[in-house]
């Protein structure tokens, strides 16, 4: 008769192995993902390593389980068939997204903080995960794209070195195009756009369509500048007596002949107040800004630590005179490294609290 004690003797080694593996997995998770102050980019390879560790742990549990060699071989074969089936069934989703994520990193066309457009979606990248990429849209909402979606659809990335900002408007044939071109260039120049230019987009039945564009170096203000360019075009054209109305415009009120529909100029005080308003990007893309700052600080921290390693190695073989200068540099870099770690901890805490 099989007693409880004999059963325990058989399964105690298995339970010990399971307990040990559980502790080891928890330590691996704590070291790789939980304890470290990591951004989404640095977490990606660690997530892959954690997934691999879980697979190895499952294999070890099967090996430790009390069963005959034939049964163990059958269980492993069954596990292999199940895994193969899961991979085959989900190959168009889970595995495909992982492979797409790897491809995105090889291509490296965008990073956290970059502005991207995917079809009708536009925003700043906040996270590049194992199977998805997250962006913060113009409404401050977070939109998640499967990595496979980004591989199979065109992705437009605004270059960090600058972009072209433009505005389109239609004016009547009674206004000389040379006059319009000069005024539109003036509006763009007053806004601070570099090398503005004007294109005639279309000669319509009742109006001419113009496009004014210029180079913007500070891409973080792209939403504000797009809006400000349209405002500036309105102001400059109205200041010079050019009205912007539809060809079918009709006002039912009696008006004096020659009346133009141009708003009165704002007072200088009102214009200054309008110019001093905060840019909406500060509120809209807060998480994307934090993600970009976090990645830059992590890169800077990594470079400082590499430099410290080089200095510590050079210190061992340096003379007394050189050693003093090396120690001074080590002291400065160590202080900077500590400050960066503190700032990284604060930023990560703010990100966690905002989620």
Short description:
By secondary structure, the protein is α+β, with helices and mostly antiparallel strands.
CATH architecture assignment name of the largest domain = 2-Layer Sandwich
Q: How far from one another are the termini?
A: 58 Å
Q: What is the strand content?
A: 15-25%
Counting helices, strands and paired strands, the structural category is alpha+beta
> What is the number of domains?
4
**Tally of strands:** 8
* pLDDT averaged over residues: 79
Q: How many distinct helices?
A: 11
Order of helices and strands: HHHHEEEEHEEHEEHHHHH
CATH class of the largest domain: Alpha Beta
Largest sheet: 5 strands, antiparallel
CATH names the topology of the largest domain as Alpha-Beta Plaits
Shape: elongated
Q: In order across it, which strands form the biggest sheet?
A: 4-3-2-1-5
The stretches of 5 or more residues where confidence is low (pLDDT under 50) are: none
Provide the helix percentage. Answer: 55-70%
Radius of gyration: 31 Å
């Amino acid at each position: 008769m099989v007693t409880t004690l004999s059963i325990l003797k058989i399964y105690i080694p298995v339970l010990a192995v399971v307990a040990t593996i559980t502790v080891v997995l928890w330590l691996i998770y704590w070291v790789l993902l939980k304890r470290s102050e990591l951004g989404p980019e640095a977490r990606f390879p660690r997530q892959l390593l954690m997934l691999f560790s879980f697979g190895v742990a499952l294999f070890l549990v099967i090996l430790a389980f009390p069963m005959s060699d034939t049964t163990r071989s059958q269980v492993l074969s069954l596990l292999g068939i199940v895994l193969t089936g899961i991979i085959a069934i989900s190959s168009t989703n889970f595995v495909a997204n992982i492979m797409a994520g790897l491809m995105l990193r090889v291509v490296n066309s965008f990073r956290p903080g970059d502005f991207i457009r995917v079809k009708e979606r536009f925003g700043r990248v906040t996270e590049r995960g194992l199977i998805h990429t997250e962006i913060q849209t113009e409404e401050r909402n977070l939109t998640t794209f499967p990595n496979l979606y980004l591989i199979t659809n065109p992705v437009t990335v605004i270059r960090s070195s600058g972009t072209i900002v433009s505005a389109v408007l239609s004016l009547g044939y009674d206004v000389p195009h040379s006059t319009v071109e000069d005024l539109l260039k003036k509006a763009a120049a007053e806004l601070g756009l570099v090398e503005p230019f004007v294109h005639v987009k279309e000669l319509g039945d009742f109006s001419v369509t113009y496009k004014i564009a210029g180079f913007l170096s500070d891409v973080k203000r792209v939403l504000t500048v797009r809006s400000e360019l349209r405002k500036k075009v309105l102001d400059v054209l109205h200041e010079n007596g050019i009205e912007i109305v539809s060809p079918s415009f009709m006002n039912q009120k009696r008006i004096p002949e020659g009346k133009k529909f141009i708003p009165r100029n704002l007072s200088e005080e009102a214009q200054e107040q309008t110019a001093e308003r905060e840019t909406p990007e500060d509120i809209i893309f807060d998480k994307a800004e934090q993600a970009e700052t976090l990645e830059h600080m992590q890169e800077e921290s990594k470079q400082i630590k590499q430099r410290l390693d080089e200095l510590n190695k050079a210190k061992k073989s340096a003379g007394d005179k050189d050693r003093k200068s090396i120690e001074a540099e080590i002291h400065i870099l160590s202080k900077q490294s500590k400050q960066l770690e503190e700032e990284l901890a604060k930023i990560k805490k703010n990100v966690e609290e905002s989620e």
